[in-house]
Amino acid sequence: MRRVLLVLKLAGLVLLVAAAAAVWAAFAPAGDAAPHPFNHDRNAAWLEHRWLERTHTEAEMEDLFATLSHRGIAYVFPHLIPFNGAGRLPVHSRDQMRALLAVARRVAPDVKVLPWVGGLRAGWKRVRPGTIDLDDMGQRQRMVAECRGLVDEGFDGVHLDVEPIDDGNDEFLSLLQAVRTAVGPKAILSVSTIRPGPFRLFIAPNFVWTPEYYGRVGAFVDQVVVMAYDTAIPTASLYRRYLAYAARSVTEEMVHSKARARVLVGIPTYDESGLMHRAGVETPENAILGVVSGLRGVGGGGTFEGVAIYAEWTTDESEWRTYERLWRGRAD
Length: 332
Fold this sequence. Notes:
This protein is α/β, with parallel strands linked by helices. It has helices at residues 2-27, 50-53, 58-70, 94-107, 137-152, 170-183, 211-218, 236-256, 284-295, 317-326, and strands at 43-47, 73-78, 112-113, 116-120, 157-163, 188-193, 223-226, 262-268, 304-310. It has a 9-stranded parallel β-sheet with strand order 3-2-1-9-8-7-6-5-4.
């Protein structure tokens, strides 16, 4: 009887310590606001579909690229998705496409323009039905041809975003390998990647990617852009801790696996609030403070490239000031 009571007491003590640790992690201060060397003005931003769909004046396009270049944005991902069931891109204006590229080359020649292509996978329960079937070889071949066509138009490469991809998916790797071959070694192949985690979640294999799968993806692409948002994390401290983990673990994996890919971490600037995204938690401030904390002492050299703003059209002036102050080290 005494042994049973002793075991129960020990179990209660363990639960108490675990609960205290969880509360501490959830609410204790986290993040790093001290000056840092991690920004090299090689950051990215996702852009709206309208820049490749509708005609814009030269003044509008000049203002866009001049502003983003001034803010240390080196890569832009103008929206051009989803691929349809036949593997074709949606309607867009070739004249506007060429005009946008011409202005970019003239106003901000160092900014790389990578159309944002991809879409939702078929077969997953989502509000919107998916159009991409990675098992369909014919569809994949046409998607690859469309990516090659964009590079032939003069774009610097493509930014591929197919969601959700389960950890370990070999068909997705085959798609990346085919696109890599098609666009050639000089074009940039950038890919949006699922949030990282230390192990595979068998009940939800598309919720996180393991370091091992990150290494396999990184072997084919030039950039992995971590979608470090829509995490359902409930507190600011936990979110900062998670961003520190994300920045550190993905960068270390690219170094460890000797992958060709460089790392960018997505910074959320959208205000919708729900189960997966809490507007007061997943903020630019919390994300950047977490990223900086995670990069301290990593020693990844040029493997970590920057942060990626999601998205340009949802970022207000206050959020840009936060980015300038905490990431670029510029006073308000």
